[in-house]
Each structure stands twice: as C-alpha cells, then as structure tokens.
Amino acid sequence: MSLSRRALLSAAALALPGQALAAWPFGIGRRAAQTPADGRANYAGPPLRQQFGDWQFDEIRAAVSSRLQPVIRDSLEDRFFEDLAASTGVETATAAVAEPGGAVWTQTWTRTPGAPPARFAWGELVQSYRATALLQMVEAGDLALDATIDRWAPELPNARWITLEDVLAGTSGLPDADLSAAAALPPVFAPGAMWGVSRANPALLSQIIAAIDQTTLAESLGRRIAGRRDLGETEFEAEGVSASALDVVRYWRDLMGDRLHGAKITGRRFYRLYPMGEGGTHHGLGVMATDLAAADAWAQDTWLGYSSASGMVAYSMATRATVAVALTGDGSPEALARGLLSQLRRI
C-alpha cells in the first residue's frame, strides 16, 4: 500500500462516527476504542487469593487417580454418629470419604425409624455441575470465556460488557433477581469490579447450555456428566441435583483428576479466586477454595470444592482425601466433614 493511499484510508477512518470506527476492518478503530465509563471496570474488591501452583495440581491428580474400593472404617463411623448425635437439628445425613489410596467409606443416617433415602438433594452444588458442562463447551470451541452475553440476553444491563467468565465467576454485576426481573433493574456494579451473588447468573448459564445442546438442562447435565462418568446414583432436575454421597465424591475426583475436562480447564477454574466475604472462602469458575485457617488458626487445611447450605464436597489438601456431606434439617455439612477429616488423620 502506498503512503498516499494509507494516509487517505486513515483520514477516512477518522471521519467515521465512533460506532463505525470500532468496526473498522483495518484495526485502526479497535486500537483507538475506549471502554465507556459504564462498561467494564478493573477489579476493586478485596485481594484475590494467591493462585495454586502446577505442582499442587500434579499432587491432586495423583491423589484422585486410584480406583475406588469400598472399606469399613469404624473410626469414621463412630465420629459420624457422634457428631450427628450432638447436632440435634439434623434429620437425615449422608457422607463419603475417599482416601488418596482409593479406599472409600460411606454412610447414611436418619433420625426417624425407617430406611434413609438413597439420594439427597445437594442444593447449590448443582452450580458446579452446570459450570462443568459449560466449560466442556468452551474446551470444545463451542463457546469462549471472553464472549459477551448480549448474544443470548441483550436485554440485561451491561450485556455488551459482561463476559461468560463474569457470569461463571460471579463478577457480572447483575442484580440478584431472576432473568426477567434483572432486565428491568440497574446493574449492582460494573462487570469485573467485584464479586457478588446474583440469581440471574445461574439462570442465564442454564439457558445457554440448553440452547447449545438443544435440550433441557437436566438432560444436558445427565449426558455430559452422569453419563460420561457412569454416575448411576446421580439425577438432575430442572435446577438441582440429587445423588448419593459416593457419587458426589466420584464426581469431584473426576473433576480434579481432569476426567471431565482437560488439565488446562481445571487449572483455569482456580486461576482467579474472588473473596466471598469473611471466612476464607473464595469463588472461581463453579468452584470454591476455602482456607480453613482464616476462621480457625488450628485448622491448617485448604479445601478445593463447592458448598451449599444442604451439601458440600471438597478435596482436602492436608489429607489428600475427598469428602462429601449432605443433610436435611438444621446442621452444618462443613462441620461434619471437618470431623471426618480430623478422624482420618488418626487412621
């Protein structure tokens, strides 16, 4: 291209309105474009958690690679029942613990006479399964984490600036409302500025997964996760998951062992971890990292998992074990899990 022709094109580009300039095919507009004040923002929340090293993921991968073999653990049994006896508000509970060598213990308990349920509802833990399905699509090239959501929900506030990664991580700034109500409300904060809870985030992800797979969310999760890993004791509903504790442990070991997606995606899920308030818990892409010492100086452990009011699952970096606990009634799944892991240290 001659100098005069290049100068002519540059002059023509500068004469274009801003919207056309941003789409200029020679890149002039893209280099000069500025994010408007009401678009994205730099992260301004509490400090992010330090990233995990490759060597730590190598250790995790080794700990969850062995085949599971059911065992009897009297010490875990005794601790489980002792803690439940002290938690008078718990009605039913289930738990499973998988050791790094592959030994796995599981037990279910009910306060009332009769057989306990075979499957428990795991509450918001379904958000981890949902994120896993969407990240499988990212790995396959069907989606991109930096794609903005205006393709699927242009009516949402800041839709042209919110990325899929924002929605997965909880940094979208969308109001804490369902999708139809969120569309009529102002954003809580600029995309990327901080972490916050929003019911619109999982609802939007469910719509995207169903649209890509051309089926219901439950059928998509069933095929992509339960069917792929032969989790026969796992069932997905419209916006929930019911499963045995053993199946939830198997799911989490498969996730951390790169059997549901590749190692690059596994690491990406824990790459940027946003504080979720006090207590040492940080949120990634459908995962949580909890530094137990933040709440208890004697608890020198970090959990990589996901928690809800009714159920939790985690890989313990101190014991290299995977634990899952769910309950009904008034109680703490995390407290039961801590009791089991502390007993595991004595085995």
Keywords:
347 residues, alpha+beta, Beta-lactamase, nine-stranded mixed β-sheet, three-stranded antiparallel β-sheet, globular, disordered N terminus
Would you mind describing this structure in some detail?
- With 347 residues, the chain is an alpha+beta fold.
- It folds into two domains: 30 residues; 291 residues, DD-peptidase/beta-lactamase superfamily (Beta-lactamase, 3-Layer(aba) Sandwich).
- It has 13 helices and twelve strands.
- The strands form two sheets. It has a nine-stranded mixed sheet with strand order 1-3-2-12-11-10-9-8-7. It has a three-stranded antiparallel sheet with strand order 4-6-5.
- Helix 6 packs across helix 9.
- The longest helix has 15 residues.
- The N terminus is likely disordered.
The outline comes out as: globular
The low-pLDDT segments are: 1-36
Strand order of the largest sheet: 1-3-2-12-11-10-9-8-7
Q: What percentage of residues falls in helices of 4 or more residues? A: 25-40%
Number of strands: 12
CATH level-four homologous superfamily name of the largest domain = DD-peptidase/beta-lactamase superfamily
CATH architecture of the largest domain: 3-Layer(aba) Sandwich
Q: What sequence of helices (H) and strands (E) makes up the elements?
A: HHHHEHEEEHHHHHEEHHEEEEEEH
| Average pLDDT level | 89
Distance between the termini: 75 Å
What class would the helix/strand composition place it in? alpha+beta
Biggest sheet statistics: 9 strands, mixed
When the domains are counted, the total is 2
